[in-house]
Design goal:
The chain is of the alpha/beta class. The protein folds into 2 domains: 109 residues, Transcription Elongation Factor S-II, Chain A, CATH 1.20.930; 272 residues, Uncharacterised protein PF01937, DUF89, domain 3 (Rossmann fold). The chain has 16 helices and 7 strands. Strands 1-7-6-5-2-3-4 form a 7-stranded mixed β-sheet, sandwiched between helices. Helix 10 links the parallel strand 2 and strand 3. The relative contact order is 0.14. Belongs to the damage-control phosphatase family. Sugar phosphate phosphatase III subfamily.
């Protein structure tokens, strides 16, 4: 993929707010490295009957995070040279001194190395997060949400479109890593506990009028309870003529705990198609759309790279430029879209995303500190509330740059 590091990653760009690191005591980022990552190592350790080699490697990674410095990938790792280049300013430093975006990404890459995902042994290609994904997909909550689709069938198209857009948005709370130890609890009852801090939903639909022969790109985030409503929204776009074709971008391999890969798309389509009522009908239409090429799944390597979207390679930029709209799902994609920095909350979303090669929409529940594009009065009220509204998953946003 080449060297895509810039001042945007290191925090040295002129006139820019600092890049978020794990360094600040009491910060959300620090809690991720100090609490969530160690807990995840233990969860992965418990989920599989790993042998001594994998167990030693996991224990070593846990010790390194807390007491050591950032070490390179093992010799023989297929992308070792790439990460040596990407991490040349971070290797040999304490983990807590690295940028949040880079360090979090590298942690997951090291975790894959520890369990032998890229090795030549029997654990090659075994997704360490698969048990968590499958448990969620087969749970009673998913069944309840699939049955709820029957209630939307007779709604007018505009009302159904709005309901499905919001289902896709709030489905982003279904983040297995976020709900692990140290993560905020998900609001009960399946309904938002907070609200929208920005709502450009009308602008989104104005870019996709019925009958437009448009291609829409959807950059997915989590599988399971988020990807299913994403697929339901895709079905609506295709069925009602808001898009003639949808390209669904997923990760090429395991990344963050519940990030969607092609295998997860297949699991979710099977879950839909095997359901009764409207969910089953949607699953059947999704399969037909995939077979006809109207729904295409892509998995570009850049989606597992530790960089903002301003550094996307030319082939991906060219592809997204041809879309009538690119919809980015989730918190990580938002951080990569606007830059993982301590921006003032009123910073212009439009200006920060002006580099993006086409119209772009962000659908995201707030689970990290970065947020931009807010009205001053709304931001002031949120800050006065006393709640951790930036990181609790109780608030969300729809932001569009036409």
């Amino acid at each position: 993929m080449g060297d895509t590091r810039t001042a945007d990653e290191t925090g040295q760009g002129p006139g820019l707010p600092p890049v978020i690191t794990f360094r600040e005591p009491g910060s959300f980022a620090r809690s991720v490295m100090a609490e969530r990552h160690p807990a995840l190592i233990q969860q992965v350790r418990d989920a599989f009957p790993y042998g001594p080699r994998q167990l030693r490697a996991l224990d070593a990674l846990l010790h390194e995070i807390a007491h050591g410095v950032v070490e390179p990938l093992d010799h023989g790792s297929p992308d070792r040279d790439l990460w040596l280049e990407w991490g040349r300013e971070h290797l040999g430093r304490p983990w807590f001194d690295t940028p949040f975006l880079w360090g979090e990404s590298y942690f997951y890459r090291r975790l894959l190395d520890a369990v032998g995902y890229f090795g030549e042994g029997p654990w090659r290609g075994v997704d360490p997060f698969a048990p968590f994904k499958r448990a969620e997909l087969s749970g009673g909550t998913v069944e309840e949400e699939l049955r709820a689709l029957d209630d939307l069938v007779h709604l007018p198209a505009a009302e159904r479109a709005s309901a499905l857009l919001h289902a896709s948005l709030w489905g982003n709370r279904a983040d297995l890593g976020f709900r692990g130890p140290g993560g905020a609890p998900e609001p009960a009852g399946g309904t938002p506990a907070g609200g929208l801090v920005a709502d450009d939903g009308a602008a989104l639909w104005s870019l996709l009028p019925p009958g437009a022969r448009a291609t829409v790109a959807v950059i997915a985030d989590n599988t399971g309870r988020e990807l299913i409503p994403d697929l339901v929204l895709v079905d609506h776009l295709l069925r009602h003529g808001h898009a003639d074709r949808v390209v669904l971008h997923v990760k090429p391999g395991p990344y963050y705990v519940s990030d969607a890969m092609t295998a997860d798309v297949a699991d979710c389509v099977r879950r839909l198609a095997g359901a009764s009522g409207e969910a089953g009908a949607i699953g059947g239409r999704i399969r037909e759309a995939m077979g006809a090429g109207r729904l295409d799944v892509r998995a570009h390597a850049f989606f597992c790279a530790p960089f903002p979207y301003g550094r996307m390679p030319g082939d991906l930029r060219e592809e997204l430029a041809s879309a009538a709209l690119t919809i980015l799902k989730g918190d990580l994609n938002y951080r990569r879209l606007v830059g993982d920095r301590l921006w003032p909350g009123t910073t212009s979303f439009t200006e920060l995303t002006a580099y993006f090669p086409g119209p772009v929409a962000a659908l995201r529940t707030l689970k990290s500190d970065v947020v931009v594009g807010l009205e001053p009065r709304a931001l002031e009220e949120l800050e006065r509330s006393g709640h951790a509204w930036r990181t609790s998953g109780t608030h969300a946003l729809i932001q569009v740059r036409p």
